[in-house]
Amino acid sequence: MKKMTWALAGLLAAGSFIASCSGSNGQSSVAASDSVAASAIDSAQGVQIDFATSEVQWKGFKPTGSHYGKLPVSSGQLDLREGILRGGYVALRLDSLTVEDLKPEEGGDKLKAHLLSEDFFDAAKYPEVKFELTNIPAEGVRITDLTELKGNLTLKDVTKNITIPVASVVYDQEHGTYAIASKPFNINRADWNVKYGSKSFFTGLGDNFINDDIELSFLLRTK
């Protein structure tokens, strides 16, 4: 693969964010199934995720519009040797969630507090979101050939297995690091017991409902 600069990787990240903000609800939905055993990680061969430049973008929908923001990565590691991926995980602290479409004083702080409350993600009780890779063969897979990532997503008190579509894997030859970008994809929050304003749990909501789909996309960079 030709050498790619971090400027290009950043451009890919921006493209992923724009797609996540402009895409319509209901596209690229991923099915949630029962969790399976996570792929084993050899910590001695682990490559750390660069927390300063890795993040998840989120977008939620309601009849009158949408809100979006970011969720930085707080920890993570990939079992990655000579370009072969054998396992890994990423964790995110919910209290680091940001709201990007509203200024803090114009509703952004209020929305964040509501999202972190018991109504939605109950961050005080379940402070971390975790994604662990699964279904990777013992011999591993070449990371630059990835078209999807299968893994267990743990949110609140529920762990479900999902398949995330991968948009690109960029290798920076100069620094020996990777940037992995997903395509925008939707999860159904009802699968993780996020109930507030959901038609999956309540009737008679009229137009006062919030769509079950949450649109996500991410950029992960290794150190």
Helix-strand string: HEEEEEEEHEEEEEEE
| Main sheet summary | 14 strands, antiparallel
CATH topology: Lipocalin
What would you report as the Rg, rounded to the nearest angstrom? 18 Å
Mean pLDDT: 89
Protein name: YceI-like domain protein
Domain Lipid/polyisoprenoid-binding YceI-like: 46-223
Signal peptide: 1-19
Pfam family, one: YceI
Summarize, please.
This protein is mostly beta strands.
Describe this structure as you would to a colleague.
12% of the residues lie in helices and 40% in strands. It is mainly beta. The protein has one domain (26-219): Beta Barrel (Lipocalin). Strand 5 and strand 6 (84-93) form a beta hairpin. This is YceI-like domain protein. Residues 1-19 form the signal peptide.
Task: Provide key terms for this protein.
disordered N terminus; mainly beta; Lipocalin; 14 strands; globular; 14-stranded antiparallel sheet; 223 residues
Could you give the topology of this structure?
Elements (H helix, E strand, L loop, with lengths): L5 H17 L10 E2 L11 E3 L6 E8 L2 E8 L2 E7 L2 E10 L4 E2 L8 H9 L11 E6 L7 E2 L5 E8 L2 E15 L4 E6 L2 E4 L24 E9 L2
